[in-house]
Design brief:
Elements lengths: L14 H10 L15 E3 L2 E3 L3 H6 L3 E3 L11 H5 L11 H13 L5 E3 L2 H21 L1 H7 L4 H12 L1 E4 L2 E5 L15 E2 H13 L4 H14 L18 E8 L7 E8 L11 H18 L3 H4 L1 H15 L29 H17 L7 H22 E3 H8 L23 H6 L5 E8 L2 E7 H9 L5 H13 L1 H4 L8 E2 L4 H8 L20 H10 L3 H14 L9 E2 L5 E2 L8 H15 L13 H11 L14 H4 L1
Antiparallel strand pairs: 1-2, 3-4, 5-6, 7-8, 8-9, 10-11, 11-12, 12-13, 14-15
Bound molecules: alpha-D-glucopyranose (GLC).
């Protein structure tokens, strides 16, 4: 858990910088009106302006480069870019496009009264349509259980308001524990809340959340004189009341983000931007309100995130290189390098962006970079992260120190690395994606979130996806036991725990991130099961959870190999536990709604992979050229 508090590392967040940034944002902004770009092409499909668009065409948007008191424009004050912009060239263009537009002040939409009314009507109609589609069906078919009723009450109590509008949910509402930063809105924690609200037809809170976090993206952020990239989304934010300059006893509300500068270990929230993109697509798909993603500021937000993720580095792999603790597991757990969780979310966010980026001269090169990365990433993961009985046997017989382009053991993995638990544990049928891959290093632990999102986003082949679920079913006691779902399997113990976690007392074996069980993973398991046509498996897990969650007061996590105890330092009334339970239930009642998050296999991307794998210039690019394990 991240927390503000005593730190050995001095943090230089200039208070006045924050204040300035707060002043860039109107203290109580309105986001009612989408600044749509009209008819457009997304991923080859033509979209026209929808009902909301007709209102938006008459909306005046105020866009101006922001300047601070010293007259320094935001592009310089907020940017970390040092090099000159190069003329021409694809990559150069992306940078110019994104950096140029980043100087733009967040859109402040001015609506004249009749337009506001018209828009309000349109929004109400839209909400009614969604209610009709989702909630009404639910209400007609079944009554909420007592646990569901309680969960809804708790979820509503967790809602955070900013200037009179709901903008998110706190991480936990545990009256008995010190708040630390659990009273903040975490980006990753809000996703299941958002899903529950969307499935209930309550869309406004999600829209507000998306737009407010977008504004925080361009906040000035500094850790020890260093500013992380512009596209970074915060891990969390808090609504604070600050005195209004010169006015006695008067306060205004401001949003105060944490980009990791206060977090324990100063971990970078790499997953936040990826979750934001994933949620943005889901919002569009369920509401049919695509004007949100068409907005200029939203398009810039997507591009800033992609720019950060796609920027050139020293990498030899298409996977994203990150520091330890950069995702849900936000402490040292030996997941630095190329952890699966980040790769699966990255792949999913790229696929979402590919659908949402408005095609124009400015975005064409970015889209091409997205496509190339998707192709390379799916090949890399399917080929090198996959293990099953057959593959482990291959690794067991690997030759090492192969110096050549066509080495079998490309990463120089020493067979001695195969852990003894795996030899007995891996079943004849079934397999999974390993946790991490680096030179001479395979982390054979099973990480649930990464494997589940690899299924949801079609990062795996359909057969691999089936095999992962088969494995989870096969090893039910290990993954579910008395509470779904194990965050990773197995736990690090003894010497490994000492060396890899740095003797972390919170991450002792079978607790918290080290083999603890997290009920919030249930909604992601449900999505994966529904996608693979196996809702009964999800239902079985939900039934297990329902037996205990309410009695146990909705804990954050459970301990022990079969999740028998409530976690040692677990919060109670943890919002993503509550929301994850509700979202799972609603998804099982409306399985077609899973498609707001899922993706099907995309043959175009796979063909791209076949082409780049075939070195021969005259070789024909075709699906047949693909190795079977990459395709099925
Ligand atoms: C813990 C979790 C993190 C979560 C946060 C708030 O730190 O590790 O993933 O976002 O709590 O619930």
């Amino acid at each position: 858990m991240t927390a503000t508090g005593s730190m050995e590392i001095a943090v230089a967040v200039r208070p006045f910088g924050r204040l300035l940034a707060a002043q860039i944002l109107p203290s109580c902004p309105r986001f009612r009106a989408p600044a749509a770009v009209g008819a457009f092409l997304v991923h080859g499909r033509r979209f026209s302006k929808r009902t909301v668009g007709s209102a938006s065409s008459r909306i005046r948007a105020a866009v101006a480069p922001a300047k601070d008191e010293a007259g320094i424009s935001d592009s310089r004050r907020l940017s970390t870019a040092t090099g000159p912009l190069q003329p021409g060239g694809d990559r150069a263009f992306e940078r110019i496009f994104v950096q140029g537009l980043a100087a733009v002040k967040p859109l402040v939409i001015e609506l004249v009264e009749p337009e506001r009314e018209l828009l309000a009507e349109v929004m109400v109609e839209k909400e009614e349509e969604i209610l009709e589609r989702v909630v009404v069906k639910d209400a007609k078919e079944r009554k909420e259980t007592a646990d569901e009723k309680e969960a809804w009450r708790l979820l509503k109590d967790a809602v955070v308001s900013y200037c009179g509008s709901a903008v998110g949910t706190v991480a936990a509402n545990d009256p008995a524990a010190e708040a630390l930063n659990y009273d903040q809105v975490f980006i990753r924690d809000f996703v299941p809340s958002a899903l529950a609200f969307l499935l209930k037809g309550e869309t406004e809170i999600v829209r507000n959340f998306l737009l407010h976090t977008l504004q925080l993206q361009s906040w000035e952020k500094t850790v020890d004189c260093y500013s992380p990239g512009q596209g970074l989304m915060p891990a969390s934010f808090k609504v604070r009341s600050v005195p209004i300059d010169g006015r006695k006893d008067e306060v205004k509300e401001v949003l105060d983000p944490d980009f990791g500068e206060s977090a324990i270990g100063r971990v970078a929230p790499v997953d936040s931007g990826l979750w934001w993109i994933i949620l943005l697509r889901a919002y569009g798909k369920i509401t049919g309100d695509y004007t949100l993603q068409e907005r200029v500021d939203v398009q810039i937000g997507i591009q800033l995130i992609l720019n950060l993720c796609l920027s050139d580095g020293f990498d030899m792999f298409p996977t994203l290189l990150v520091a330890d603790g950069s995702c849900m597991i936000d402490r040292r757990m030996g997941i630095h390098g190329h952890p699966l969780e980040i790769q699966a979310l990255f792949y999913c966010a790229l696929r979402c962006s590919r659908e949402m980026i408005v095609i124009n001269d400015g975005s064409r090169s970015l889209l091409s970079a997205v496509n190339k990365r998707l192709t390379a990433l799916s090949f890399h993961i399917r080929e090198y992260y996959w293990v099953d009985m057959k593959k482990i046997n291959e690794i067991y017989r690997y030759k090492t120190e192969e110096y050549s382009q066509d080495a079998t053991n490309k990463f120089n993995i020493y067979p001695e690395q195969i852990p003894s638990w795996l030899v007995d544990w891996i079943p004849e049928k079934g397999g999974y994606l390993i946790g991490n891959l680096q030179p001479a290093h395979m982390d054979f632990r099973f990480f649930s979130l990464g494997n589940l999102w690899a299924i949801i986003s079609s990062l795996t082949t359909p057969r691999q996806a089936e095999d992962i679920l088969n494995l989870m079913e096969n090893k039910w006691e290990d993954f579910v036991g008395t509470m779904p779902l194990k965050i990773c399997y197995p736990a690090l113990e003894n010497e490994e725990w000492r060396i890899i976690t740095g003797s972390d007392p919170k991450n002792t074996p079978w607790s918290y991130h080290n083999g603890g069980s997290w009920p919030t993973l249930l909604w992601q398991f449900t999505l994966a099961c529904i996608k693979m046509g196996r809702p009964e498996l999800a239902r079985k897990a939900v039934d297990v959870a329902e037996k205990r969650l309410s009695d146990d007061q909705w804990p954050e996590y459970y301990d022990t190999p079969t999740a028998r105890f409530i976690g040692k330092q677990s919060r109670l009334y943890q919002t993503w536990t509550i929301a994850g339970f509700l979202a799972s239930k609603l998804l099982l009642q409306n399985p077609e709604m899973a498609s707001i998050f899922t993706f099907e296999e995309d043959m175009e991307l796979l063909e791209g992979c076949a082409c780049s794998l075939m070195n021969h210039p005259r070789a024909k690019c075709s699906r047949r050229a693909l190795k079977p394990q990459v395709l099925i």
